[in-house]
């Protein structure tokens, strides 16, 4: 039996969040702009110690099942952010534009909490849309779109472009 203050054995692993460890070490090296041995050791130490200290606040580790899909997802999101910036800039700067703001309910097939959070974050990072509510009970995200003439088409687009890949990555 596990006490309330003692983490279960699976959480006591010294490398509980390997992707976070790699990310922290990489960010450290990028910030230091050096591959000197002392910086490599500091990055390794930083990447091992910090996730161990905060693992109780992070929840279970996230497993990426398909790295190729994760890379595809990252490129797709970056591309969509660039394109959406141009679309929103044209919409805002055009004197005759007539945007149609709308609320869109996006039904979710995702089960993994990290995947849902990532989808909501991507929607918000993409100019012109904001995730306002992630309703886990109704299994939907309420999205506000700056210019949306067809709410169902936008919901289908979000599901086809992002949710499909997230299902392959996380579930």
From TrEMBL:
Localization: Cell membrane
Which InterPro entries does the record match to this protein?
Cation_antiport_E
Membrane topology of the entry = Multi-pass membrane protein
Q: Which Pfam families match?
A: MNHE (PF01899)
Q: Which residues cross the membrane?
A: 14-31, 37-58, 70-93, 113-134
Instruction: Specify where it is mainly localized.
Output: membrane
Q: What domain of life is recorded for the organism?
A: Bacteria
| Signal peptide positions (record) | none
Keywords, A to Z, come to: Cell membrane, Membrane, Transmembrane, Transmembrane helix
Similarity comment: Belongs to the CPA3 antiporters (TC 2.A.63) subunit E family.
Name assigned to this protein: Na+/H+ antiporter subunit E
């Amino acid at each position: 039996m596990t006490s309330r203050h003692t983490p279960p054995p699976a959480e006591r692993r010294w490398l509980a969040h390997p992707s976070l460890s790699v990310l922290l070490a990489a960010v450290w090296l990028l910030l230091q702009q050096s591959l000197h041995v002392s910086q490599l050791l500091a990055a390794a130490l930083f990447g091992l110690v910090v996730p161990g200290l905060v693992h109780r606040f992070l929840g279970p580790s996230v497993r990426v099942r398909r790295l190729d899909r994760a890379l595809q997802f990252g490129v797709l999101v970056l591309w969509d952010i660039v394109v959406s910036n141009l679309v929103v800039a044209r919409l805002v700067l055009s004197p005759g534009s007539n945007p149609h703001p709308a609320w869109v309910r996006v039904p979710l097939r995702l089960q993994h909490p990290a995947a849902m959070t990532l989808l909501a974050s991507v929607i918000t990072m993409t100019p012109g849309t904001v995730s306002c509510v992630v309703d886990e009970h109704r299994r939907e995200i309420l999205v506000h779109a700056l210019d949306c003439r067809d709410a169902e088409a936008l919901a289908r687009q979000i599901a086809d472009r992002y949710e499909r890949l997230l299902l392959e990555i996380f579930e």
